[in-house]
UniProtKB/TrEMBL annotation:
It comes from the Eukaryota. CDD domains: CYPOR. Its cofactor is FAD; FMN. One of its GO terms (molecular function) is FMN binding. Residues 8-152 form the Flavodoxin-like domain. PROSITE patterns: FAD_FR (PS51384), FLAVODOXIN_LIKE (PS50902). This is NADPH--hemoprotein reductase. Keywords: FAD, Flavoprotein, FMN, NADP, Oxidoreductase. InterPro entries: CysJ-like_FAD-binding, FAD-bd_FR_type, Flavdoxin-like, Flavodoxin/NO_synth, Flavoprot_Pyr_Nucl_cyt_Rdtase, Flavoprotein-like_sf, FNR_nucleotide-bd, NADPH_Cyt_P450_Rdtase_alpha.
């Protein structure tokens, strides 16, 4: 850092990219205040060196950290977290600030950020600005821009810095391949997550950076209605992938071809062109925003998120390309951290679920170069699904139970969920005799049945919240087949109508009949005049619930959306 003349380092703890993106934005903005920053992944740094930052004049360590699971750190912050817990180091003189990313609906709201903020101070570091709390259940973008404006003001005041002009600078350099600068196709990425040709040459072990191309064995609709809930079975034979009931399977989806082509049309761009984006900061560990070289079509299809609502910095940067002054002024206003700007952003972008495609359609004079847009858009993330099978019954496949996302927006457009709509079309046998493949990896979870089979369990799983419990019930069915004593197994399920969206009705009925399920309580919210939800059934069964979890020391599990306020 010292040699590069930098005095700000922004660390991120990120699983799905938001904290990493916020870190990059903070680092980029530092130049505006005459500072020079770098972004750092704690997993790739020797955090023992943190104290050395004090040797650099006017230096600050900023942390953007998300919380996961039971208030746990992200994978890339795990080691750093353990280091802090095991004593850390004397950080006297280190100046720091923390922005926490979380979601208020979780019990351990922003636990990691809160812990880090307190722990750094305990180790002697000095807080330059108060902890920021971002709530992903509301408007985390607004939380972040509000916090960072105040953070920078405070830094300017403490370090006696002047606010400079806002400059829009590119982070990556464009390299175009054409007749003058050719590249052979075997050096071009075609959608692989990290390793070139990893899909053509599949090699175990398979994980997040090296997904397994799993064949779709079964794909059917579980609903008897217009809506879709997919039951998909993904093959594992030969992959060496193992799982436990309660684990998650992650799927790398593809964006809808129509949307990809629409962007090409709107920006008048030949999407077959091959290009690379190379980081202008040679010291950065992140050389490219996504695997490069690749074609624009592949970048839009596999690597960038083109369907969620873009963040304000994207709008600010593309405003520069508006040829219509009104469009330019509008984008500048909507991306500004003023009250008016925030309100407009919340209304025009968030409430109306406007994606980048919609924005380019609605503001046709805005035509950013596609490579700049690709630099700004977040990376397309894998989608996680609770595995709805048990390896005891299905060692060679994982089952997924997924509701297909489709909804109408405030601008009368129909938005379709990326992964679920892509999966919906993945029917076995639909690819001219070729196997229909889906890139996946397995993620371990802590969601487990009790170690002792005799321990009774209550499972509350409305809608697709049933998914992991189907795996649990299969597991308990298997134990009973081996004559193991198994405790009470009670399930609460809820959906709209018995005739339409009662998931796995046949299986559940069979498990009640053969005694695997001791009790099955099902709430059909729309089958009578008044609404009945699982929470109403829970309220009616307080005595039995207490008997299981209190007297018999059973376990209670909840998966999916359950408004527990109704129970209190
Ligand atoms: C650990 C874990 C386990 C999961 N398990 C399951 C599971 O078993 N089954 C399952 O179906 N899902 C599960 N999910 C959710 C799943 O990962 C995906 O988020 C979901 O399938 C949608 O993905 P998509 O790509 O189709 O939709 P996306 O393209 O990601 O679109 C979804 C987004 O659209 C927006 N949206 C959706 N509906 C509306 C609406 N009516 N109005 C406005 N905006 C809306 C929301 O912002 C939502 O986040 C799980 C998630 C996690 C983190
Ligand atoms: C499976 C899962 C578990 C989560 N657990 C928590 C939690 O315990 N506490 C919390 O405040 N937020 C929790 N969150 C919310 C994330 O921290 C939040 O969405 C954050 O913005 C993600 O940042 P990232 O994209 O950088 O990973 C959870 C999110 C998911 C998907």
């Amino acid at each position: 850092m010292k040699s590069g003349g930098r005095n700000v380092v922004v660390f991120y703890g990120s699983q799905t990219g938001t904290a990493e993106e916020f870190a990059a934005r903070l680092a980029k903005e530092a130049t505006r205040y005459g500072m020079k920053a770098m972004v750092a992944d704690p997993e790739e740094c020797d955090m023992e060196e943190l104290s050395k930052l004090t040797e650099i004049e006017n230096s600050i360590a900023v942390f953007a950290v998300a919380t996961y699971g039971e208030g746990d750190p992200t994978d890339n912050a795990q080691e750093f977290y353990e280091w802090l817990q095991n004593g850390g180091a004397d950080l006297t003189g280190l100046r720091f600030a923390v922005f926490a990313l979380g979601n208020k609906t979780y019990e351990h709201y922003n636990k990691m950020g809160k812990y880090l903020d307190v722990r750094l101070e305990e180790l002697g570091a000095t807080r330059v600005y108060e902890l920021g709390l971002g709530d992903d259940d509301a408007n985390i973008e607004e939380d972040f821009i509000t916090w960072k404006e105040k953070f920078w003001s405070s830094v300017c005041e403490q370090f006696d810095l002047q606010t400079g002009e806002e400059v829009s600078s590119r982070q990556y350099e464009l390299i175009s391949y054409d007749d003058d600068n050719t590249i052979s196709d075997d050096k071009v990425f075609h959608g692989e997550v990290a390793r070139l040709n990893s899909y053509a040459n599949q090699k175990a072990p398979f994980d997040t950076k090296n997904p397994y191309l799993s064949p779709v064995l079964v794909n059917r609709n579980l609903y008897n209605s217009e809506r879709n809930c997919l039951h998909i079975e993904l093959g594992l034979t030969g992959s060496k992938l193992r799982y436990e009931a309660g684990d998650h399977v992650a799927v790398y989806p593809k964006n809808d071809t129509n949307l990809v082509e629409r962007i090409g049309q709107l920006l008048e761009m030949d999407l077959n062109k091959v290009f690379a984006l190379k980081n202008l900061d040679e010291d950065s560990s992140k050389k490219h925003p996504f695997p490069c070289p690749t074609s624009y079509k592949t970048a839009l299809t596999f690597y960038t998120d083109i369907t969620s609502t873009p963040r304000t910095h994207v709008l600010k940067e593309i405003s520069e390309y508006a040829t219509n002054e009104e469009d330019k002024a509008f984008l500048k206003k909507i991306s500004s951290p003023t009250d008016e700007g925030k309100q407009l952003y919340a209304e025009w972008v968030i409430k109306n679920c406007r994606s980048i495609v919609h924005i380019l359609e609605d503001l046709p004079s805005v035509k950013p170069p596609l490579d700049h847009l690709l630099e700004l858009l977040p990376r397309l993330q894998p989608r996680y699904y609770s595995i709805s099978s048990s390896p005891k019954l299905h060692p060679d496949s994982v089952h997924v139970t997924a509701v297909v996302v489709e909804y109408e927006t405030g601008t009368n457009r129909v938005n379709k969920g990326v992964a679920t709509n892509w999966l919906k079309a993945k029917l076995p046998g639909s690819d001219n005799g070729h196997k229909v493949l889906v890139p996946i990896f397995i993620r371990r979870s802590q969601f487990r049945l009790p170690a002792k089979p005799q321990t009774p369990v209550i499972m509350i799983g409305p809608g697709t919240g049933l998914a992991p419990f189907r795996g649990f019930i299969q597991e308990r069915w298997h134990m009973r087949q081996s004559d193991k004593p198994v405790g009470d197994t009670i399930l609460y399920f809820g959906c709209r109508k018995k005739s339409e969206d009662y998931l796995y009705e046949e299986e559940l009925t069979k498990w009640v009949a053969d005694g695997t399920l001791t009790k099955l309580y099902a709430a059909f919210s729309r089958d009578q005049n008044h609404k009945i939800y699982v929470t109403h059934l829970l309220k009616n069964n307080m005595k039995e619930i207490w008997n299981i979890i209190g007297d018999k020391e059973g376990h209670i599990y909840v998966c999916g959306y359950v408004d527990m306020d109704v129970v209190h």
